[in-house]
Amino acid sequence: MASKGDIRAAIDNSRLTTRLSIIGGITSLILLVLTLVLGAVKGELVGADVFSLAVIPYSLALLFSISALIYGMLGTSAAIENEEKMLLAGRASTNALNVEEDVRFTAGRSFENYRRFAPYVLSVLAALLVAGLLGYFFRHWAGRPADATPIGVDVATKSALFSAILMLVSVFAGAFFVGQSRGPAFRWLRPVGAWLVTGFAVMFVSTVAAIFVRNNIPAADTYAARVIFWLYAVLGLEFITNFVIEFYRPRTMRETRPIFESRLLALFTEPGGVMRNIAAALDYQFGFKVSGTWLYSFMERSFFPLVIIWAVILWGFTMIHEVGPSEVGVKERLGKVVETDLEPGIYWTLPWPFGEIRQFSCTDIHQVVIGELHDEKEEEAPEDDGHGHGPAPKAKKTALSPVVLWTAAHGGEDNNFIVAVPPTGKESSGRNSEASISFIRMVIPIDYQIRRDGVMNYGYKNLDPEKTLTRIGEQAATEYLASSSMMEVMSTDRLGAEAAMKKRIQELADMHELGIRIVAVTILDAHPPVEKVAPAYQNVIGAMEERETMIWKAKAYAAKTLPEAESKALQITSDAESYRYTTKTVAEAESGRFNTQLITYRAMPSMFRLRSYLDFLEKDAKDIRKFVIASGLSSEVYELNFEQKERLDLTDADITSVK
């Protein structure tokens, strides 16, 4: 039985656990409320996705603070009960039939039941809490317009400030509870500290993301929020995994770690090094002292030196560079060019970032586009209404058809070029005169290659060669189109316009020492402006196409009707000729046959009649049954076979083959 001093220490530790859990719960509740108010209710103050995700660790810290509070209260009652039992055991006389002692002392059993079953319930509650909050965030992000920004540049400074304040509170509170949980009596406070430290990490990421947003990188908050979202999902899955594994893993007689503790967070939040945390996790998982094996001892001594050696080796690989085929290399040392025109091969430099070799491909074709179509990513973010509602949701965009009409808006507002209007022969002057210009929208891709002798100009004499080439292309296109006709550029003279602009762009590129060779200039998507000109222009083009359609329909009808008429006339003529020839030939044949029969009849009339009669019986009456009877006999016996019917009716028909 435990001594009186041990019982008093257990009472003091349980009471201290209760007080610390109350402090942890209040701290977690304050942090949770501030996160909800600043991140959701008053979104115009912070409104960052990463900041709002801190709700999850603070909620879990509050949950585990409540569980530690109950643990401390029950532990205090159980320790006081043990003290009372010790006092009763020291009395001189006891009544063997007194059952009040068993009825009165129930706090210990309640405490043991709580220690036994509460971790399972807490694991399920924590998993459900994480799943519910992640589901809410997922639905919220899915319902938000794709181009909406969760945090604006104007509130990024306030977001960074609030995140930094909550970060400091979280790290101090988390470090205190993690340090306090070194003792076995305060083990249930360790999840509180671990999740407060997790809240510190989230707020740190929120602060960094807000700084990036403040420097016009709004996607930093979104990407960081997505990463943290999936990390939460992994930690939530760990609760379920631990809950299931707990039924099958081997156990020791004395278990000190609750199953709702996160092993992943313990690697970075528990006291001691990472290797010792891994060893403790392995010891707990397998039920025996894994950290006492020779393999673990070797890994503990050699792991970090090996990591450092591997890092140094990987860093040393940055000294090796390869210049590929058809590439030209330029060696740099401490930011200065020390060697140029490197041929394909392997080269050595100082490790990064002290040495580098830049490769320039002289065969790859690069492209810049003038008047490029509108990009949704570059669309200006709509302003907030000032009430925390964020930008108004936009209508969903339907998928573009493969065929885009001129009258349908499908380009940006900055791809208009001025073109000349041909003179109409009418003089106009005064205030009603109009300038002889029009506008055309075009997309002009420019394909180019880096010249081998222009690598230094391309890489070092121009800060942004592609942007410079884009400006040159716009200048050349404006110069050419200002003296050209819209119809010519859109139809007959497109190839000439491409050749002229290619020549002019090459001249300007050489003038600016870009070190490139223009491969091709292509005119795409040339059409009038959509707003006012395109509908009228579309009507004119439609009328022209209808006229051409009617002409070609008439030609097609003529090409179809004339051959049909000629064919029908030829058919009628051929039929008449055939009928004439057949009639004449048959008549001549019948006449010749009759003359021959007449001569035969006159020569032997009786024989001719007999022969004709027999021919008739043989040919014309061949399907009729005939009986030949001699006329000169006085008597004759007839034998008739009635086995076969002479006449058939419908009942004798074979219908098995009829389908």
UniProtKB/TrEMBL annotation:
Domain Band: 318-540
InterPro entries with a match to the protein in the record: Band7/mec-2_domain (IPR050710), Band_7 (IPR001107), Band_7/SPFH_dom_sf (IPR036013), HflK (IPR010201)
Membrane protein topology class: Single-pass membrane protein
Gene Ontology MF: a single term: peptidase activity
GO biological process entries: proteolysis
Chain segments annotated as transmembrane: 20-41, 53-74, 117-139, 159-180, 192-215, 227-248, 303-321
Name of the protein: Protease modulator HflK
